[in-house]
Amino acid sequence: MLNRISDKQLWLWYWDKRLSGEQIAQMLGCTKAAVSMRMKASGIPTRSVHDYPPTEKQKEAWRKNGKKLSTYPATKAARIKNGKARIGSRKRSDYEFGGHEKRRTDGYVVAFVPDHPHATAEGYVAKHTLIMERSIGRFLREDEVVHHINHIRDDNRLENLRLMTRKEHQSMHMKERHAERRNQVC
Hints:
Blueprint: H1 7-16, H2 21-28, H3 32-42, H4 56-65, H5 71-86, E1 101-103, E2 109-112, E3 124-126, H6 127-136, E4 144-148, E5 161-165, H7 166-185
Antiparallel strand pairs: 1-2, 2-3, 4-5
Helix pairs in contact: 2-3
């Protein structure tokens, strides 16, 4: 049935009569997905959320939450807020190691230094590694790691960092784990 309907008729139902895709699908006895695909193939744009007037329930919720019914004041307020939030933020030239920094999901801070020998495929190096390398004046060897003394992964102050071999580092953490387990049992 959907194939027999012209693009003009589909446009009329969707845009002029303001029927939803689900309502059109029920009229034609097909699925909403079929109507959506046909509209896309015909080049009929879909309506956005802003094309619908707010319901009374939405207006009441906005009144309770203090949101104005007009979107312009809220947008203007958001622009002002975002503009003030960016004042004093760092610019690209301010970064210590040349590239932008970000926090990984595991809590470590990494910096974009793509030409570093220990950079990941994306070009990032752990910031604590860069700080330690700057302090000792050379790149870390393969068997060396930087340990956070207070175990806070984004605390990259030099006094909180300690250069260790991988073996020493693993041994120290294993001893800490065993001590924690002994303390939990008692």
